[in-house]
Amino acid sequence: MGTFGTLTTIAFRNLNRQKKRSFLLGGAIAFGILVVTLINGFAGAFQQNLAANMAQMNAGHVFIQGVEKTSKDKPFEIIRDDALLTKTLEDSGIKYEAIARRSWAEGSLVFEGKRVQQGVWGVNFETEPLLTERVKLRAGSWDRIHEPGTIILNDGIVKKLKLELNDKVQFELKSVTGQKNFGDFVLIGVSQDMGMFSSMIAYTDQTYLNGLLNIGPHEYEYFAIMLKDMKYTDRDTEKLTATLKERAQVFELSAADLKAVSTSASNMSSRYTKLQKLAKNTTWEGAKYRVFSINDTISFIEDVVNIINFVATIILIVLFCIIMVGISNTFRMIMYERIKEIGTMRACGMQRDSVRNLFLMEAFFLATAGTVAGWVAAGLFMGVLSLFNFGTNSVLSLFLKSGHFSFSPLPLSMLGNFALVAILTLIAAYLPARNASRLAPAEALRSSK
Amino acid sequence: MRKVFFRLMAVGCLLALSVPAIAQTPDFQAMVNEIDASSSFKGQDFSGVFTIVTDKPGKKQKVSQIRMFRRDARDQFLILIQLPEADKGQGYLKEGDNLQFYDPTSRKFNHSSMKEALGDSEAQNDDFSQNKTLEDYNIAETGEATLGKFPVWIINLKAKTNDVSYDQIRLYVRKDKPLVLKQEYLSISGRLMRTILYPKYAELGGGKFFPSQMLVIDEINKGEKSQITMSEMSLETLPDKVFTKAFLEQAN
Fold first, then answer.
1. CA A239 to chain centre
2. Which domains, and CATH codes, for chain A?
């Protein structure tokens, strides 16, 4: 066995000799790692779950919008050429599960002097029958949804307006070109409360909504594609853009625009918002298309996740600054306790560097064991937390996976945390290690400490 | 022969009776242009103070006050909010198609829209700007009625394009003077959405009339209305600096 092997053995033995102390120091490290891994894991899954749930809500992972301009150069969304988009999708080779062709109106619901903002989806229930199975109602039923002017509203909105089933509510909206219009809805069903997302979830018959939007019965605003595998969302969006570009005009963000989205500190707007702005600043004839993914609409969440991860790293550093003081003091104590032992080892021919390395190895092993224990504890915590079902009827469910917490810790970030912990622990142990290595063997042996 | 004679006589009488009626039917196109011209201040500046009292069901009555400066020759206007205290110093500056809103708290200008409501009231920015009705609307139908004690012409306007906020507007114009007494705004589906009543006008000289009182009614949310009273109206020339961002910034 070489010097390294001998030192490793001694280091392990020393850690094992003071089980309680090693356990406490390792435990402190493990706690820090546990907290940070949990935060990182939640932040990672937060983005994935939100994208998956938003995709369910919006009936797709990848979307196409057609944009035209009014005589006064004002852009508005409309899709008239369905055949072009269907053919493009087939030719792109994208594997998809379903297509939804939806209309969308934003406006105000007015009932007995109360007014709330509401977005309403116009759905073709003949081609989207699964929606009625997926969106569970807490009151009423989907039976009459084919009747013009019937609506399913969210519980949050129903409570705000103090509505009851079969109440007639007025809807003030703007047509696709921005003209004011007005319609009546009869409440036939109430879906689960989705908190701050309540104002985005309401469903009505597409033909009726198209009438209010002043577009034809076969026209619509969103061509939504539900992919077979969500992980290919970005790749498939690029594929679809490239295929559509060969046969129609398509909006595309320049590298500079994309950079502006990702670097501007004050800019929490999504890539989709940037894409929308392009329509205001460019001129074209006829229809021009906008291809985007669910990730583009929530790209600002990436910033939120980055902030969470940054805060987690700061927490880790602060925790370890505190732990470092403990480690440094402990190793100083260890040095005094082992003064005679160090003297003996030095008298037997052990070099100064080896004494220092022995202490550093102990610190490194402590950091490694603590980190591994932290990861194991985090894994256990994640497992236990993911057992709880928080249901799918609250705003929290948007960040959950089928009502359960899910975690996606990034291996690279975990290794980064380990490296940080190892470096900080080594720094904390370095001074006591150096002092130990500088002890003269004779003095150490003479020491009565 | 006698039958034919009497028939001809009857037709002749009917034609004779209808001639004055045809002669009395005004040129509605010219009438709408005249209405726009009477409240337009080309070659003159206009300023005035507008007090807006807004009522909304279940809410406390709100009083706001704005000072307006208009220069129609350059399609400019500046609105300075004086009341309520919380909004004091805010303002709008319009130059051509560009409308900017100034917030003294952030000291920033943001792009705004003429269709935006003024504060929390029922009034919109374009209620105070010059009208170019026939640029956006065609006269679809006309009729006559009596509004209060005034005999009025009813002019139904239909949007030429789908760019304007309201698809249809109905004007009730006094027969004796080209003054609008009531204006109704209708949705694409033909539903009444908003009504403005003009019970009083002030004559500013030179054939210029400006409503000294307006009542803006939200027809969807019943009970929501704003009463606007104009005062300190003047056609005196305003300094150029009034229509600048600096003026808004220094107004505090």
1. 24
2. 3-53+302-446 (no CATH), 97-214 (2.40.40)
